[in-house]
Design brief:
Elements (H helix, E strand, L loop, with lengths): L19 H12 L1 H4 L20 E2 L2 E3 L20 E7 L7 E3 L3 E2 H8 L1 H10 L5 E5 L6 H4 L3 H15 L3 E5 L8 H20 L5 E9 L2 E2 L1 H12 L6 E6 L9 H19 L10 H5 L1 E6 L1 E2 L6 E2 L1 H14 L3 E5 L30 H6 L36 E2 L4 E4 L2 E5 L3 E2 L15 E6 L25 E2 L4 E4 L2 E5 L3 E2 L5 H4 L6 E3 L14
Parallel strand pairs: 1-14, 2-3, 3-6, 6-7, 7-8, 8-10, 10-11, 11-14
Antiparallel strand pairs: 3-4, 4-5, 8-9, 12-13, 15-18, 16-17, 17-19, 20-23, 21-22, 22-24
Helix pairs in contact: 1-6, 6-7, 7-8, 9-11
Length: 519
């Protein structure tokens, strides 16, 4: 699966320091190595008949960093309401520090993408999210981390931050053939599972690997063997049924053939490592991910009809999971995207209605394992301007596209210019409100500050002075530029009447979209 690159212009992620708590985690995990070898493979579906198996769960991948930001926490934007958030990778080629796509550290994703609040909103709706590590681009954490214990500690940091009980290890690209990384990854999963089991916690781990119509290739089989050798408990193997190379006329039939070949490989491989799976249980330990619409290879297009074939097969054989790459792409390309055979990160390249693939596959009805009930996020208590990350909504203030406000303990973002429209008002349809619910205000949040400039940076604003367009001034320590000739017009009006004020702020106020300011 291709991760979109070059779509953002964010600053380079800042390096996170190795905290004492992470060191303690790593030492605990190292202490577990002595008993990790005895950690037995467990599988709740071993020996069950097909009738006793849970239905396949469907969760599309969402590229967290691609623009525009996809609001996966909104049920109207995600009918299945289950997502695989992708991809957590190393911050840099030699840094054993998790980041989202190499663009954002975990903290930066929280402040820039509101990712913590959006995942918390899923939990408040009773949904267990999934986080995917790896992908085809950037540096896999298993490559950057130099020990299994440090890798396991980074996995745990992400798991605990987002409170997930299922993770996806997407091994492809250069990481697929990196044998030392494969060894670290398998050992880290075994250590992680052992550590969580000691805390009476459980994590479901899916190993995502590329497949062809002949099943797993040699590198993929080697990755799986290493996991089994280290007694890492896998919830299943997820085959990426896409990018076969030569043109494929029927992508649905090709996916079915690939799954059949992979199931035969698993049925032959598991007994060699003492894994008690057979019959229907082997099928249930298998998942599939397809790339909707135009694949990376020009001769491959997965249509809505192909997706129906995959869904029917998943039901009939009781697969464990189904995913698509990606929810960001689940819409038909417009006339402006006229390159045939080119894959887009924001549209499918095939004939479809909006979210048609998601609607179709959401009928599989299975749910992502949560390890019990999903704990809601209570949010910040006694909310005040001092612990609100954005200003409180004011009925008399105008809000342009992208403004964020806090109202009734939740964060909202303006979808279009509005004034006096309650963000929390009940509406029958999502298109009737100008506000997008982001998620709850989390405990520990603080009001951001706007950096002022030292006196003398620009002349101070004076009410009796006439200013030409382009003039720059300071007002209350903040910089403004004149949009047109004016006199005696206070820059303070730029906050309450941005379109009518002759002054354009050269800074971003809390809640304001970054594109509104400038420097």
């Amino acid at each position: 699966m291709q991760h979109a690159t070059g779509s953002l212009s964010s600053p380079p992620p800042s390096r996170q320091r190795f905290s004492a708590s992470r060191l303690v985690i790593a030492l605990l995990l190292v202490a577990g190595t002595a008993v990790a070898a005895t950690y037995s493979v467990r599988n709740a579906v071993a020996g069950q008949s097909a009738a006793g198996l849970a239905p396949a769960w469907f969760a599309p991948y969402v590229d967290v960093t691609v623009t525009p930001t996809y609001q996966f926490q909104d049920p109207t934007e995600e009918p299945a309401h289950q997502v695989v958030l992708s991809f957590v990778v190393a911050e840099s080629t030699d840094s054993c520090t998790p980041s989202w796509g190499g663009y954002y550290t975990l903290d930066q994703a929280a402040s820039t993408l509101n990712l913590d609040q959006r995942v918390a909103q899923l939990r408040n709706d009773g949904v267990a999210g999934v986080v995917s590590f790896g992908g085809s681009a950037n540096t896999d954490l298993a490559v950057a981390c130099h020990s299994a214990s440090s890798l396991a500690a980074e996995y745990l940091q992400v798991i605990d931050r987002y409170h997930v009980t299922t993770i996806d290890l997407d091994v492809e690209g250069s990481a697929l053939a990196d044998w030392p990384a494969a060894q670290r990854r398998a050992a880290a999963v075994a250590l992680l599972e052992h550590h969580l089991a000691a805390l009476h916690r459980h994590i479901s781990v899916w190993l995502t690997l590329p497949v062809t119509t002949q099943g797993l290739g040699g590198p993929g089989l080697a990755q799986l063997r290493q996991m089994l050798h280290d007694k890492a408990h896998l919830a299943g193997v997820n085959g990426m049924a896409m990018d076969y190379g030569p043109p494929v006329a029927d992508m649905g039939a090709a996916a079915v053939q690939a799954l059949g070949a992979t199931e035969a490989q698993l049925a032959a491989l598991y007994p060699r490592y003492g894994v008690p799976l057979s019959g229907a249980a082997v099928w249930h330990s298998l998942g599939v991910t397809v790339m909707i619409g135009q694949n990376d290879d020009a001769g491959e297009v997965l249509t809505v009809a192909d997706a129906r074939t995959v869904a029917s097969f998943a039901r009939g054989e009781h697969l464990g999971r189904v995913s698509v790459w990606s929810l960001n792409r689940d819409s038909q390309c417009g006339s402006g995207f006229g390159v045939v055979g080119e894959q887009s990160s924001t549209c499918s390249g095939t004939a479809q209605s909006s979210l048609q693939f998601d609607d179709l596959l959401a009928n599989l009805r299975g749910t992502v394992p949560s390890g019990g009930s999903v704990t809601p996020v209570s949010g910040s208590s006694q909310l005040s301007p001092a612990n609100a990350p954005y200003p409180f909504w004011q009925p008399n203030d105008p809000y342009a596209v992208g403004y964020k406000v806090v109202w009734q303990n939740s964060i909202y973002e303006s979808k279009w210019y509005n004034q006096g429209q309650d963000p929390a008002a009940d509406v029958q349809y999502a298109w009737q409100t100008p506000w997008q619910l982001i998620g709850p205000v989390l405990s520990g949040e603080r009001a951001p500050t706007t950096t002022t400039l030292p006196a003398g940076t620009y002349p101070g604003w004076a009410p009796g002075t006439a200013y030409r367009a382009g003039a720059r001034i300071l007002f209350a320590g903040l910089a403004y530029v004149a949009k047109w000739y004016n006199s005696a017009s206070s820059p303070a009006a730029a906050q309450t009447d941005p379109s009518g004020s002759p002054w354009q702020p050269l800074f971003t106020v809390p809640g304001e979209p970054s594109s509104s300011g400038g420097g």
